[in-house]
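Purpose: get a first structural picture of the assembly so the mutagenesis plan has something to point at.
Setup: two entries, given in the order below. No constraints added.
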Amino acid sequence: MQKYTPKDIEEKWYKAWGKNNLFAPSGQGAPFSIAIPPPNVTGTLHMGHAFQHSIVDALIRYQRMKGRKTLWQMGTDHAGIATQMLVTEQLAKENVSPSQLGREQFIQRVWDWKERSGKTISNQLRKLGASLHWDTERFTMDAGLSNAVNEVFIKLYEDGLIYRGKRLVNWDPLLKTSLSDLEVESKEEKGSLWHLRYPIADLEGEFLVVATTRPETMLGDTAVAVNPEDTRYKKYIGKTINLPITQRKIQIIADQYVDPDFGSGCVKITPAHDFNDYDVGKRHGLELINILNANGTLNDQAPKAYEGLDRFDARKKIVEELSSLDLIEKIEDHISAIPRGERTGEIVEPFLSDQWFVSADLLAENAIKVVENGEIDFLPKNTENIYFAWMRNIQDWCISRQLWWGHQIPAWHDQEKNIFVGRSEEEIRAKYSLATNVNLDRDKDVLDTWFSSALWTFSTLGWPEKTKELKTFHPTSVMVTGHDIISLWVSRMIMMSLYFLEEVPFKKVYVHGLITDANGQKMSKSKGNGLDPTDIIEGISLKGLVKKRTSNLMQPKMSQKIERNTIKEYPEGISAYGTDPLRFTFQSLASGSKSVSFDVKKVEGYRNFCNKLWNAGQYVLSKIEKKESKPILDAKINLDVNKWIQSELQACIRAVDFAMETFRFDLAVKAIYEFVWNEFCDWYLELTKPVLQSDESSDDEKNETKKTLITIIESILRLIHPFTPFISEEIWQKIPREYKEAADYIMVANYPISDSTLTDEQASKNICWLKETVTAIRNIRGEMDISPVRKIPIIISRGTEQDRLNLEKFEPLLKALIVPESITWKEPEDHNPLAATAIAGTMELLVPMENLIDKESELTRLSKELTKKNKEFEAIKKKLDNPNFIDKAPKAIVEKEDLKRQRLDEVIKNLEHKKSQILEI
RNA sequence: AGGAAUGUAGCUCAGUUGGUUAGAGCAUCGUCUCGACAAGGCGAGGGUCGUCGGUUCGAAUCCGACCAUUCCUACCA
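Result (structure tokens, whole complex):
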């Protein structure tokens, strides 16, 4: 028999599905669509992607099997900054700089790179089993989407929602581009606070002390501000400062912004290099002195000695010079939040430059409404707080980037700095009747990548054309994403879709957690704790893993530590667990919590589960022969075991449906896991063995059992398919056609629907009795170290009439599961031998002690059992002794408790009796 | 500073609207080649549900305070 080997069964099916066009929307059901959060075209699949796409694929496959016309729209984005950086780095290895190459050639290089590497992520998604519709794959830079971007830009400009202006923006001096607020990360870092003495003009020897974390910015100071109420400084307001080094004179002004209790109560004002100072400057009409070049060096506004110096070298020099002038009061250690570019890690500077902005207020207003009124639901509900918080305090969005890779802004400038926005130079010339001697230059900036991503749900469906796809699949059904992306992307999609289509982009936003390592640490290259989903699917040696984690480190010093940790955590590397177990693990983690820790041990557990399912499949298939299908399929179901497992299956289907409706993927897979392993494998399969093997069971019984076996496993496979597509397809394909749903592939078979007529409570009760009885005997075996194959005599005592009936009915099954030497029924009044006792219901199961059972161990066992039961009894007694409980609690509860008390009382008396009997020996 | 979330077994997490003895996986211990499965079977141990108070007949669950951790937003130069 073939062993479960994920690799052997996973590779072939994806191709088969694709060949048969199963990824394309089909059928007449209500549309269900999801737009993939576009991965970076030059990127690779990371754990977050794998997690996210596993969830989406489960949703998509579930709805597809439910008969919906299902589209999972594939596409990638151009990731302006990340991709431009990457290609620049490649060029650097050839000792070529982008400027040497020129804009056009550089862009060509990026396209070349995209052609080469763009397939990596697609292939990884295929490996993951993602049932994406590849035929309509889109890319943010392709012609159609670029056209959509232009249309949106032009319309927003014409409607007055896009404007251009000189503003202070976040500037990355390495990339020499602006960044939006959301692309800047501020973290606390150690630094210094320099307290500078600024000499007051005309007052020899008097100073104002200002503090700063960036001394070099003093070269751009145009004022010193104090609080107007500050009595210490009132007298200086209106006077001037001789700004050291520069020899400029700057005013002392009064502004409420200054906190008199912080530091000296004096603040240097540098309007061109600080966001707060910018506002102060505006209020007071201060001059803006920009002292920086785009690359972070000082410009000609700085004294000659400083011109051309890098900002941090300038800082050192300023401090030295001030120090030699005795103008430094003190230097303190200081921790402050340092803003860094998300991609480059470079310290971002507030920088004065011409930029394009989307004014956000109007767009935000509508976007807030649709979430408030429930047109869009966030799941889990509280994630909408992130959305509201950002939306209600929205700032205008800086959309221009000084990059080459991206959508070039469709605007032209003439000599007089007039701006013309349009589809092309020709169109503009015609529209504005510009003479041929007017020179037009195209704006050099490109748009923020998120500008094109904001159109994603509709641009990928063909907008601005009124396509059939757009009509059918928009608004999309769900957006699945991480909470870190709500402001950056989700909110902007909502704004754009509302403005341009007057409908929401999606009806639901499911926000999943962030994948961390097994210790709850964020996975990162620099910590060396990251995992590549491909390595979990295909396996990797320890050596390979160490190499992966330690190569291209920003801090090579970490290398040894990373290696040690890796050896400790994965001494054997990672074995090839396969896609299905990885996917099942991700589902089990999707509980709605904010962060989810990923442990390879979990994958191992679910790999074992897949193995279990595999073996169960083997067992069932081995019992079914094609040629006898007729009597099997015609069989009527009479046996309790068969009715019971059907009931359990129905309950499981209901649980899965409920979980899927509420986006609790963890509960969905848990329901399946428990049903398959704990009921189907542990009990049902074992119970079919005596029926199928025994000569005493009739052909009818055998046939109905075979029928049930195959029915249940076939349903299980369809039930589990959205979560583990490959193993389910593999086993399902081996089931002879006549036993299964009419479909060529399980992927497009119908999803199981729960059928309440298949629920049989009496059968379930009876099987429950059987399980309890078996468990009780197994407990004695286990505790008494009696080998499971050794035959033991069993006496059943104090049983009810129902117990006796059950015993009769299930004797063959009991015999198979508990391997008794004999089973004897005794009436309560009969004398019982000394025996080990177990309780099932109120019935006593006795295993006579002779030669089998040790007195001491049985006493321990009885005591343990007694303690448990007594504790329980006390708790119930306490309740029932409370008159308030009897009075106020619902009758049903009180009766239930009372019944429990009676039963326990009986059980305890029996146990005590047994104990005293043994003590007497 | 403001906002939000989390705290349940050694670890990672479930626990629907308050109502049996608070569950699972992994880890631990004992035991078993029993014809699907040692990637397994069978059995066992392990928890004052962060702390304190309140509401209630009854609280892991509802309310308040506190402690701890995490995230987001804004940062005082």
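The CA atoms of residues 621 and 735 of chain A lie 7 Å apart.
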